[in-house]
Specification:
single chain, alpha/beta, eight-stranded mixed β-sheet, AB_hydrolase_fold
Length: 329
């Protein structure tokens, strides 16, 4: 009976202990990596398996939903999220005079090479440098959109260090895959704004266009999301430089063909920016990978799809913890 009482007390206390360990109000720290300074947060205990989360185009670490980060941490992971270079509180790179987005986009459309201040592989090197600075030898990687492209390079740069790879709403960059609509591309490239109010409206328009047709967005909520991001950091030129890095990237099919890292590919059937075939193509070229298609998911983390996303990702990450036990709470 005494054993049962002790066990009951321990079990009832687990949620409290997990919430204390997974405190999302940790400070944002910075690490110097040569010419680049990265802003990051580390949530969870240093002794837990590390999960590095890599955000997409123009995204900041705050764009990872707190509820998702908390759930990942509560599964026993040390969650590390950061601002890519040219986003958020990380280094904003100076643009050379030759880096003209309109001109380079035209070159891309006619099949010519694109000039960019840096490449996606450089951004993967940033992420690897962050893990070096934190003293993390092996880790799991979860990347979304452009972050998934960076994650592909990261797994190629350090295959012995990446325990598992989770790629969400991303692409191989191969020619011939379905393209987004011109209207969506126009919204994506519309970054200049004469005022704060216009900038917020533009961002809300983009968020709405990237959302699922199955969800009716609350315009006020979209504007609030845009405002939070704007107040933390507003860097439209940085988004252009990141976009140039994507355009300058050749197809990653050869890279994917040589990957031998356990990989889960998650994609939505209603993605307007990178239609579902992009995810299917990625999975087809990574040996042994798993593919999860989520009906109705578009190109945004929307409340209606948090549980389906977690249902796809959590079992996979649990299966690849490789430490043989659950979190020691």
């Amino acid at each position: 009976m005494r054993v049962l009482i002790v066990l009951a007390v321990l079990l009832c206390g687990l949620p409290v202990l997990a919430s204390e360990r997974c405190n999302l109000q940790v400070p944002t720290l910075k690490v110097e990596l040569g010419e680049v300074r990265l802003a990051y947060q580390s949530i969870g205990r240093a002794s837990d398996p590390a999960l590095l989360m890599v955000m997409g185009l123009g995204g900041q670490l705050i764009h990872w939903p707190d509820e998702v980060v908390a759930r990942l941490c509560e599964q026993g992971f040390r969650v590390i999220r950061f601002d890519n270079r040219d986003a958020g509180l990380s280094t904003w790179v100076q643009t050379p005079p030759s880096a003209n987005l309109v001109y380079q986009a035209l070159r891309y459309r006619v099949g010519l090479s694109v000039s960019a201040p840096y490449r996606l592989r450089d951004m993967a090197g940033d992420a690897l440098g962050l893990m070096d600075a934190l003293g993390v030898r092996r880790f799991h990687v979860l990347g979304a959109s452009m972050g998934g492209m960076i994650a592909q390079h990261l797994a190629d740069l350090a295959p012995a260090r990446v325990q598992s790879l989770t790629l969400i709403m991303t692409s191989s960059g191969a020619q011939g895959l379905p393209a987004p609509s011109p209207a969506l591309l126009a919204l994506l490239s519309k970054r200049e704004a004469p005022s704060r109010e216009v900038a917020l409206e533009q961002q809300a328009d983009l968020l709405a266009a990237l959302g699922s047709p199955l969800v009716n967005d609350d315009r006020r909520a979209l504007l609030q999301q845009a405002e939070i991001a704007y107040e933390r950091a507003f860097n439209p030129e940085g988004v252009e430089r990141q976009l140039l890095a994507i355009l300058a990237e050749p197809s990653r099919v050869e890279l994917l063909n040589r990957l031998r890292v356990p990989t889960l590919v998650v994609h939505g059937t209603a993605d307007p920016l990178l239609p579902a075939m992009h995810g299917v193509h990625v999975a087809a070229h990574i040996q042994g990978s798993e593919l999860k298609l989520i009906p109705g998911l578009a190109h945004r983390f929307q409340e209606a799809f948090k549980e389906p996303l977690l249902a796809a990702v959590l079992p996979y990450l649990r299966a690849h913890r490789q430490d043989g036990h659950w979190a020691q709470l």
